[in-house]
Amino acid sequence: MPELYPEIEPYAVHRLAVGDGHELHVEECGTPNGLPVVFLHGGPGGGITPAYRRFFDPERYRVVLFDQRGCGQSTPFASVEHNTTWDLVADIERIREHLRIEQWLVFGGSWGSTLALVYAEEHPDRVRGLVLRGIFLLREWELDWLYQKGASRIFPDAWESFLAPIPAEERGDLRAAYARRLFGDDPGAAQAAAEAWSRWELATSYLIPRDDEESDEWLLAFARIESHYFMNGGFLDAEHQILARIDRIADIPMTIVQGRYDVVCPMESAWELHRKCPRSRLVVVPDAGHSSLEPGISAALVAATDAFAR
């Protein structure tokens, strides 16, 4: 299986104003005349890192990466104002038009897979193909699995830390309890909640858990933006919207990469998506969890982008 490509620096960096006070950080790397691909990061709220440039052959791809609203180097940082799925779909189109790209491959994992599917269903004529990882269809059971009861049975030790900021009487709806703290008037309580929320997701993202060092600012943005989206059902029109409209992208080639032991986004969603998309190819990595940077997941994603480039 192929490994990640070597580290690479952007050949162009853009600041793109998209309205409502938001300005996006956009990078281009690889070759300007290559096959265009847009990378959609996870979270929502995660932002991009240099490692994400390495899923693509720099001699074949024109790679476009950007920090979604409120994330990374986009401004205003950690803002949830005018920050919805539909704003992000419009942002992707603004980036495509700004860079004068007719069609592109869309690559996304976890929340990025959600956003990729919603974007493709809105603009199927702009999508040459989809490479998706860790499928998340933003249904209530998926949110409950991670933030109420489910993953807690597999990681009870990490779950105990997730519960710690919330009094027993509020634990019947943990997402709501966290939202009250993340958006409350007490900065100390907000930061403590952000750390517990984000650490829980990081702890469950790998087959073999590891310690990821993140700044307080990153933890707060990640937790606030995720909470904002998840308390609002991802701003979708209906809970099952993505699968209900899947016929819009039935003819688009799709590769789905899924870790067998993904606790953040269980494989059931990847399986359902695959069964409803006749042109999809499902690659199940037998010794991996959720993260795109686990060796088996990375190798499968690189193999998928290499195959599409050919």
Keyword list:
17% strand; Rossmann fold; alpha/beta; 10 helices; 310 residues
Q: Would you kindly provide a brief summary of this structure?
A:
It is built from 10 helices and 8 strands. With 310 residues, the protein is of the alpha/beta class.
Describe this structure in words.
It contains ten helices and eight strands. Helix 1 (85-98) crosses helix 2 and helix 4 packs antiparallel against helix 6 (187-203). The mean pLDDT is 96. With 310 residues, the protein is an alpha/beta fold. It has helices at 85-98, 111-122, 140-147, 156-163, 174-182, 187-203, 216-230, 241-244, 267-276, 295-309, and strands spanning 12-19, 22-30, 35-40, 61-66, 104-109, 127-133, 254-259, 280-285. 45% of the residues are buried. The chain folds into two domains: 12-139 and 235-309, Rossmann fold; 141-234, no CATH class. Strands 1-2-4-3-5-6-7-8 form an eight-stranded mixed sheet, with helices on both faces. The protein is globular, with a radius of gyration of 18 Å.
Number of strands: 8
Structural class, please? Answer: alpha/beta
| N-to-C order of helices and strands | EEEEHEHEHHHHHHEHEH
CATH topology term of the largest domain: Rossmann fold
Overall pLDDT level: 96
Low-confidence stretches: none
Identify the CATH homologous superfamily of the largest domain.
Alpha/Beta hydrolase fold, catalytic domain
Largest sheet: 8 strands, mixed
What is Rg? Answer: 18 Å
